[in-house]
Known about the structure:
It is a single chain. The chain has 22 helices and 5 strands. It is of the alpha/beta class and 503 residues long. The longest helix has 33 residues.
Amino acid sequence: MPLLIACFIAMWTLYLVIAYAGGGLHPDTLEAWTLGRNFAFGYHKHPPLMGWVAASWTSVFPLSDWSLQLMAMANAGLALVFVDCVARQFVTGHKRILVLLLLMLTPAYQFHAQRFNANSVLLATWPLATWCFLRAFESRGAGWAIAAGCATALAMVGKYYSIFLVTSFAFAALAHPARRVYFTSASPWISAVTGLAVLSPHIYWLATTGASTFSYALTHANGNALSSLSEVKNFLLGLVAAISVAAVVWVFIAGTRLKQFPADFAAMNSGLRLLFYVAIGTIVLPVLTSLALGTDLPSLWALQGLFLFVVLIVCGARYPIERFYTVNVTVIVSGVALVAVLVAAPIHAVYRNINGYEEGRNLYQQAASELTRQWRELTGEPLGAVSGDDALAFATAFYSPDHPHYARTFERQYDWGLPRKAVLDRGWAALCFQGQDDCGRWMEVVSSHAGNFVRREFTVQASLWGRHGVRRKVVALIVPPRANGVLPVTAAQDFSASKRGLE
Length: 503
């Protein structure tokens, strides 16, 4: 099992390195790293776990694309480790391996995982919390109860969507025939107290900062009955599509034995029945919430829960799985990975080098380097703060050798507010792609308040393995730092030229 998971991490990290060669990191990953640069018990857009993970990782590994791609796949690999911990509660041998192989045929552990953000960080926390809950319910021991409380709290600081997992634990415990034994023991109350204790620093942060993460979450609750029905339909279809390949493979494995499913379901053991209630809760509760409150409900929010259904189907089958099938599925999984690395990844890289990305990620590093060069040429100092288009600002913070700080406060991330005077006095720069109207208008407003500024435009071009690719224009606004209230001579000259429209 360790070898299987290690090979999975290695192969799909290699895929990401090739497929996104010259492509830059996804803005969500860059945002996670940006958040984690300043440790806090909460951030104004998302709960803090993704920032903590990114900061911890980059304190050991270098700041590079391959490093954070490895981080994303290591998170997926850790998720499979915890899924295996759940599966081995019920089965051994080929079925235990088959659970992981089927999950490797879903997009959740490769393509969803590579976009490291508040959603993908739940890939590992959900199976960990589920494993601890199963053990706490079964053993009713203090150790597992404490572990369940800690793991559940960890899932909550990953994303508040985890409230559906926590509520599903409560629902499963109440629906299970052994509920009286469980709730009359100390186990659930130890878990609850432990979870609240672990969450208390984040709860305190929410109470003292205005709970802006809740405000951001509530921006998704702006629909009506008709839009909610559409969201629910797409949510369910998306999950079915995500698990469809694994389902087809299982159909071939089970063959005529599929007709035993009703009998197998009726004979399901106590632990699997508990897991069944959890799985149902993680689907039904979001659907009911969306219908009641009119919230958005993308299926990618629930991909981390697919393991529940795979474990139930494979472990709930009372017939043995022959080695022949396990070997064949291993060959299929290996073949998919090899085709992805050797064929799909180079094609993807070449295509994106020519056609680019909507967010312009294959131009991030070039834009960051050029802004840093012009800033140093103008001021003779390291670049300290950057803002503008969020994706470009996150990228500049990551790719620039000066690693400037993201200057916009996250609670005003979408307000296009003016930078504080103290920020401008210390020196500040902003970037937009040409054609980003909101960002361009914001630059005009900042220019009128900044006093001294330099506006530059330059063209950046993608490059892959020596071949030039897509080009885009970038607009930069530079406010040089004040030295005792006096603008440096070179900056003043450039500022004058800018005011005359000669730049």
